[in-house]
């Protein structure tokens, strides 16, 4: 969804015409599982998350600094961190892409009065020209966005949440002479949320404990598929990698 609106800055009289892209999906997962999948202040995990969500559009990224927390013993997805990333331009011409410096806030906000909670991972561009050098000689252009991120909200169903991706850009950044099509780049970033369920499933598979081959049920001990109970006859036997049971083609595909 695309929306135009006026954004008023806090403690000032300045207003900016802005554009907002938003995309929402429903995910079969818990709040904590989704938050662990979208928010991390460790560089290696941050890169995996970005590659999993944005694919080839993501070039590289680094967690530059994590701010100290005021409250201890919180989950790892509660943090405020300074990050840097490079995104591939929609048309791979005129350089490698655009790089961004931003402050990222992540955590869960709880409304005690209505007993509701909302997970968030929000990024806001910051000026870091003196701390992070310009990489123009590598074909990168330092760019900015107003605000972008992911929101996690309840759906009313158990173990199911709603994930919303959004990006807010000032219209002043979208001039025709802009060498990068920032609007299209941010649109693709928001639209990438549609692949989140697949990314989450890959993470689950990576955490599975598989049964060693020598623990598999021998073929001679099973005449029927453990899933559909059909006779094997001339069908090839397979084995479930989690429990070692013998299955047919149907059971293997499931």
TrEMBL record:
Gene3D superfamilies for this protein: Zinc/RING finger domain, C3HC4 (zinc finger)
GO molecular function: zinc ion binding
Keywords: Metal-binding, Zinc, Zinc-finger
Origin superkingdom: Eukaryota
Domain FYVE zinc finger, chain residue ranges per copy: 215-245
InterPro entries: Znf_FYVE, Znf_FYVE_PHD, Znf_RING/FYVE/PHD
Protein's UniProt name: FYVE zinc finger domain-containing protein
């Amino acid at each position: 969804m695309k929306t135009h609106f006026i954004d008023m800055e806090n403690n000032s009289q300045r207003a900016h015409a802005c554009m907002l892209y938003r995309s929402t999906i429903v995910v079969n997962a818990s709040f904590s599982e989704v938050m662990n999948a979208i928010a991390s202040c460790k560089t290696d995990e941050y890169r995996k998350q970005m590659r999993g969500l944005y694919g080839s559009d993501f070039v590289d990224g680094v967690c530059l600094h994590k701010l100290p927390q005021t409250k201890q013993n919180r989950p790892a997805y509660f943090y405020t961190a300074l990050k840097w990333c490079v995104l591939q331009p929609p048309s791979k011409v005129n350089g490698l892409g655009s790089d961004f410096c931003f402050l990222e806030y992540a955590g869960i906000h709880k409304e005690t009065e209505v007993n509701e909670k909302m997970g968030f991972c929000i990024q806001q561009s910051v000026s870091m020209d003196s701390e992070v050098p310009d990489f123009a000689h590598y074909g990168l252009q330092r760019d900015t966005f107003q605000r972008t991120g992911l929101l996690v909200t309840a759906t009313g169903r158990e173990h199911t949440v709603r994930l919303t991706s959004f990006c807010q850009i000032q219209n002043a950044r979208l001039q025709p002479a802009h060498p990068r099509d920032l609007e299209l780049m941010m649109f693709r970033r928001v639209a990438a949320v549609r692949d989140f369920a697949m990314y989450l499933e890959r993470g689950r598979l990576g955490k599975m404990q598989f049964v060693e081959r020598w623990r598999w049920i021998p073929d001679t001990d099973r005449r029927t598929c453990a899933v559909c109970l059909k006779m094997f006859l001339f069908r090839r036997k397979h084995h479930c990698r989690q429990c070692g049971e013998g299955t047919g083609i149907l059971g293997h595909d499931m």
